Amino acid sequence: MRTEHLQRMVKAVEDGDIDTARAVLDEAAETADHDPSPKTQRVPGRFKGRMTVGPEFFQPLSEEELKELTAE
User: Fold this and answer.
1) What pTM was computed for the model?
2) Residue 8: which domain range?
3) Does the pLDDT value for residue 60 go beyond 90?
4) Higher pLDDT among residues 61 and 3, named by residue
5) Is 13 inside a domain boundary?
6) Secondary structure in 3-state letters for the chain
7) What's the number of domains the chain is made of?
């Protein structure tokens, strides 16, 4: 939001003119730069070797652990 939009909106809100504030917001939205920054390409395997999972991870959970997870 540009400074002039912000100033006009604050003035409208202070004056209790919600319709003008809403119109200023709409105007700011129309004139805003909607071009998002270019996203970086995902690199598969980027964290390979940085995290290890032991064999116990693949073992079934006990009844107590299941109750803890399901909040029963």
Assistant:
1) 0.41
2) 1-33
3) yes
4) 61
5) yes
6) CCHHHHHHHHHHHHCCCHHHHHHHHHHHHHHCCCCCCCCCCCCCCCCCCCCCCCHHHHCCCCHHHHHHHHCC
7) 1
